[in-house]
Structures are given as structure tokens and as C-alpha cells.
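To the wet lab folks,

You asked to see what we're planning to order before we commit. Fair enough. Below is the target structure as C-alpha cells, and below that is the sequence we designed to fit it. If anything looks off to you, flag it before the synthesis order goes out.
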């Protein structure tokens, strides 16, 4: 592998909530390790406003300043695909490595529910960065 950073796509159906938060936190915590993108198969007009508000409160990141809902076709080819956890059929994107984080969609739920999902995303972003840094990605395949 060359020295360019792997590209990671965080995907779910609408690209308005979990995948957007993952993109923001990926950029925030792991921009030295990988490039973060998010996308979906359908597009909402804007990022979930509770997600925007809470990411601003917790991390002082304004997602609306740098991010917008995007379709899978709007992002470059990626090396790693992270599915947020779709109860419906998750979108497919070709990649060298894929994980499903199985996160509940906190849309229309309480701030507390949002904070739980946000904390899980932060934890998983840091774990993914660590796996990439230590070249453990190829060993994560399930038997």
C-alpha cells in the first residue's frame, strides 16, 4: 500500500444522521489516519438537526459548515466501507474491507439516545483508526 491514507465511507440509507456524525468524528479524531466520507442511497434535504446540535455541543464541530447529505455516487472510490447498521437493506459499495457497526438510528429519539450513539461512534472511529495504523484490518475477517 502506498503512503496515501485509506478512504473510509460511512454509509446508511439517508445519509442524514449516523453516517454524517461518523464522517464528522472521523475527520475530528482520525484525519491523520484516514479520509472520511459519508453517503447514502437516498438523500434528505439536510443533516438531522438533533445530530447537528449535539455534535456542536459535544465537540464544537459545525457539521453544516463542511458537510451535506450525499449519494453514494457523489463520493470517490473508497478502500473501507462502514455500514452504520441498516435494519433495511444496506447500500452496497465496493471496497477492500467492510464492517457493519450495527448502530441504532437515534433520529426522533431523546438527546440521551443520541449521546449513546455518538459515544459509540467515537469509540468505533478510534478503534478503526487503531486497526488501520497497526495493519490489523486484514485479520478482522470472521471465520
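Sequence we intend to order:
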Amino acid at each position: 500500500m502506498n503512503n496515501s491514507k485509506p478512504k473510509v465511507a460511512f454509509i446508511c440509507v439517508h445519509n442524514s444522521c449516523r453516517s454524517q456524525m461518523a464522517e464528522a468524528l472521523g475527520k475530528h479524531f482520525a484525519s491523520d489516519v484516514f479520509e472520511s466520507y459519508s453517503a447514502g442511497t437516498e438523500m434528505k434535504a439536510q443533516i438531522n438537526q438533533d445530530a447537528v446540535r449535539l455534535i456542536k455541543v459535544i465537540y464544537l464541530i459545525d457539521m453544516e459548515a463542511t458537510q451535506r447529505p450525499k449519494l453514494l455516487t457523489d463520493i470517490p472510490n473508497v478502500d473501507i466501507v462502514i455500514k452504520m447498521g441498516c435494519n433495511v437493506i444496506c447500500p452496497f459499495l465496493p471496497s477492500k474491507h467492510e464492517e457493519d457497526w450495527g448502530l441504532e438510528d437515534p433520529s426522533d429519539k431523546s438527546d440521551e439516545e443520541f449521546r449513546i450513539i455518538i459515544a459509540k461512534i467515537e469509540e468505533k472511529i478510534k478503534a478503526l483508526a487503531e486497526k488501520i495504523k497497526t495493519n490489523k484490518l486484514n485479520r478482522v475477517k470472521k471465520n
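Structural context that might help your review: Strands lie at 7-11, 35-39, 80-83, 97-100. Helices lie at 18-30, 49-59, 63-66, 111-133.

Thanks,
Computational group
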